[in-house]
Design brief:
Number of helices: 8
Largest sheet: 4 strands, parallel
Distance between the termini: 22 Å
Number of strands: 8
Shape: globular
CATH topology of the largest domain: Rossmann fold
Helix content: 40-55%
Order of helices and strands: EHEHEHEHEHEHEHEH
CATH architecture of the largest domain: 3-Layer(aba) Sandwich
Oligomer: single chain
Number of domains: 2
Strand content: 5-15%
Strand order of the largest sheet: 2-1-3-4
Radius of gyration: 18 Å
CATH class of the largest domain: Alpha Beta
Structural class: alpha/beta
Length: about 250
């Protein structure tokens, strides 16, 4: 099984770490390949950033199709580009945001998402609503650390996440915690252990593990998104520098 991870930014230095973390989250026999965009932004923290990713995601999805991968994961908790990618592909295309939330909704009464900065909170809340999971949302809380700074001091980041998680549990009634950035992949066990030391028996979901396991199930069962929901767009005249957007 070959799974393509699309990093929807131009920050290529993340590729090796994402390759390692996704491979650790995968089952035996699954091969992971990671690609970044040639054009776009260094991180995604606004609607402007989201818009700038779409052309590059289209190209990377079409490249994945030509290379015969079995599934595509778009590596962003806002699941940027997933709908358009599903229109262009017949194989499964999923993102870690919805995958994590749906898993969280089955494991506890309500969940909290920890995003990076305050301005992202409305965007995350809107995504939760789009997934029809608002009734299961306890809160969206910000760490106050931009994406590009999350790995500057891992110990400070971990302590901040545990502190904010404790507030989500005590003040918001969260029963499940979702670290809301894929750059925090692999940290869930440390977060859960830190909360346990403070007396909280609470589940922390690793988004990379959640999306990888769901992808494994989809590919193994031969399932993908409905083409009635995501039909291939009709061909029309267009100006586009990349691969054809209308090949079946």
């Amino acid at each position: 099984m070959l799974i393509r991870i699309i990093n929807p930014t131009i920050t290529e230095k993340w590729e090796s770490e994402k390759q390692k973390n996704y491979q650790l989250a995968a089952n035996p026999g699954v091969k992971i390949s990671v690609v970044s965009l040639e054009n776009g932004t260094v991180s995604i923290e606004s609607y402007r950033d989201l818009a700038l990713t779409i052309p590059g995601i289209c190209d990377k999805v079409l490249e994945a199709k030509l290379e015969g991968v079995d599934g595509v994961i778009i590596d962003n908790m806002l699941d940027v580009g997933v709908p358009v990618a599903r229109e262009l592909m017949h194989i499964p295309v999923i993102g870690p945001g919805e995958a994590s939330m749906r898993l969280a909704a089955t494991l506890g009464h309500r969940f909290s998402i920890l995003t990076t900065i305050e301005s992202l909170i409305p965007m995350v809340e809107k995504q939760v609503d789009k997934c029809a999971l608002s009734s299961k949302l306890a809160s969206v809380r910000a760490l106050g650390i931009p994406v590009l700074a999350l790995r500057d001091d891992p110990q400070v980041t971990l302590k901040t996440i545990i502190d904010v998680s404790e507030k989500a549990v005590e003040r918001d009634g969260a029963h499940v915690i979702i670290p809301g950035c894929t750059s925090l992949g692999g940290m869930a066990p440390k977060i859960q252990a830190g909360l346990k030391e403070r007396g909280y028996q609470i589940i922390v979901i690793d988004p990379l593990s959640a999306v990888m396991q769901i992808m494994d199930i989809l590919v193994s069962l031969g399932l993908s998104h409905s083409k009635l929901t995501y039909p291939l767009p009709d061909a029309k005249d267009y100006n586009w520098p990349g691969l054809s957007l209308f090949e079946s």
